[in-house]
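FYI - complex with adenosine-5'-tetraphosphate, inputs then prediction.
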Amino acid sequence: RPRVLSGIQPTADSFHLGNYLGAVRNWVAMQHTHDAFYCVVDLHAITMGHDPKILRNRSRISAAQLLAVGLDPEQCTLFVQSHVPEHAQLGWVLSCITGFGEAGRMVQFKDKASKAGQDSTTVGLFSYPILQAADILLYQADQVPVGEDQRQHLELTRDLAQRFNTRFGKTFTMPSPYIVKDTAKIFDLQDPTIKMSKSASSPNGIIELLEDPARSAKKIKSAVTDTGRDILYDEENKPGVSNLLTIYAALTNRAIDELLEAYEGRGYGDLKKDLAEVLVEFVKPIQERTKLYLDDPAQLDKVLAVGAEKARAVSAVTLARAYRNVGFLSPA
Ligand code: AQP
């Protein structure tokens, strides 16, 4: 079976629909076809400033949500990044073969740094994509299921794998991004020209899986739509309606063409009302299951402990090989 690795940051009290449709939904599918490793990347979550108590809580909420949307610890390895010290260890080695200019060209870093300002921008935020490369390469992943916003980081990962292998001998598998075109970028409901995002979206622009479903329904109904009245899929001229169609199609497993046919001659209001209902029915069981997992933190911690052990069995082998190849003495 090909190997996959992906991660999600515990930086909010809930995942949003973009996280789910762009990435996590594919994780669930791939656990049945791949040797899958998924992690809650808490090391990444401290790059922008955080509160320790909130972080701890969000790490548990993230793991609970991943189980609630369908990850099965019998089918995949689910773990918390900080439980596996090899991530930080390999991150250091990779940072020593990454150019300063190369890391500085990462668009996500530039965006976040420009918003935070120089005094609040950490070195951790700068080296974030290098740690991400370590996450992936440690597991010798063949594929990395992510949203479109991660494509550049994946390119860096590939460059680093290639460079390391060329300089120090074959050590890492070359990973490929696994990006499903239809849902690679879910847009903000209030500004459908930007991606739905924890940090950049306004509260009405983002659907959180764990928020009150009535609130989600309201947000769908007040989503910005476009001029004209026809329901058409046209990303350029009708980004708002197109985004709603993408979400609708993904949640119902229907083709966009089928939806266009069903809504021919009908208005935006009908589309929004129906999508709101679909969404409410979709999130309700996820919320119930998340609550069940959170109500039993001992069991959740056990799942994560087993996951960390399985993850270490793989990552320790890769790290040892990388250390050896880079020239570190083996401990006697
Ligand atoms: N809008 C999106 N559409 C499709 N995929 C998305 N992802 C994030 N936003 C969208 C994918 O979700 C996965 C987890 O991402 P993350 O943990 O890195 O989350 P994030 O980047 O912190 O999420 P945000 O909302 O994008 O946060 P900010 O605004 O802080 O950058 C990834 O695979 C990502 O591609």
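The mean pLDDT is 96. The CA atoms of residues 6 and 69 lie 15 Å apart.
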